[in-house]
User: What shape does this take?
Amino acid sequence: MDNTVITTRALTKTFGSFTAVDKISMEVRRGEIYGFLGPNGSGKSTTIRMLCGILEPTSGSGAVLGYDLVREAEKIKRKIGYMSQKFSLYDDLTVYENLDFYAGLYSIPQRERKKRIGEMIEMALLRGRENELAANLSGGWKQRLALGCAIISRPAVLFLDEPTSGVSPTSRRAFFRIIQQLANENTTVMVTTHFMDEAERCYRIAFISEGRLIADDTPENLKNNVIKGVLAEVIHPDALYIIDNLEKLPYVLECSNHGPALHVLLESAGAVQALNNYTGVEAKIIRPSLEDVFVSLAKKNRRQVS
Ligand SMILES: Nc1ncnc2c1ncn2[C@@H]1O[C@H](COP(=O)(O)OP(=O)(O)OP(=O)(O)O)[C@@H](O)[C@H]1O
Ligand SMILES: [Mg+2]
Assistant: This one.
């Protein structure tokens, strides 16, 4: 059986003369958690909306579960789960009533509903809160309830657009554990996030910048292959002031700040001594993190465009 669940070929969306999504080609396999990362405005939500059959592509093609994005958009909408960046619950309905409402939307038969709603309440860790109004739930609970509403129909594919923005680290972890459980049960999950710890948990990551897909690989391969050179960490009291000067040094390829530290990409290990002499502190060679990979990819892409 073909295991490809989402596929696109040169998928493109323009708004007037502006290209929001630029010839994206990708494949997502069954049971994968596919992370979709990129700076604000890079086209993540627009791509997801096309994949959900909500927004018609300008050109290119794609299919979800074998259904064509344009010709079979209605079928796609019925088969998938989608939690949008600005998901909405009914504030004046209780937890139970919200789930029941979505069960109705997806035409889940009456005799099955109670059981399904119960399953969602278990999954979303909402036991004991069934009769609370959605309005009164805190952020993390709301997000898990919205997830319950999105998957009450047991979709084979789930699209999550920044599901964990604005909630606490504990809630984010609880949420991602549920996602991992769903993937273990063979649900295909495409998720956008700005959090590196979540990106680390994805099976594959696609990185999109200015509408273009500029990397698509496992977190491990991205960390091993994207950054060419030797990465050094420099902890310096005037980190933010020296960053511009460091970037001008002939042996420095890139420089970015990470909290109190600077990450300096050097041409080769031989340049460490020169760097130490310049800064007056001892640099430490480090392994690139996913964040380093993304900073580097975004910079590279901007250079190619300009
Ligand atoms: N309906 C629209 N009309 C015009 N421009 C649009 C429309 N929808 C999106 N855009 C533009 O397309 C670009 C990509 O937007 P999109 O929402 O896909 O980005 P994103 O990667 O999801 O960003 P974020 O991380 O902020 O959510 C942005 O410049 C946005 O302003
Ligand atoms: Mg978005």
